[in-house]
Amino acid sequence: MHAIHPVFHVSQLEPAIPNTIPNQTQPPPPPVDVNGNLEFKVAEILNSKGTDKETTWVLATELDNASELVQEYHDWNPDKPSPFKK
What we know:
Elements: E1 32-34, E2 37-39, H1 67-76
């Protein structure tokens, strides 16, 4: 007897439905394993400094997979500290 193979046709897939309950936030997606390291996809860079409890500080040099996003942020905010030399 053959083992069950977990494969199904694409027609069986449905889009994820976002949470629409008022005042309830979606949990962040889990990290992705990239070359043995857990990484998150950076959606947006909000600021280069802050005190909000939700703020996570990550060095720009640690955002290898978001270098275009870091560059775009500093292009739009030239007065903010930048890891790029001018």
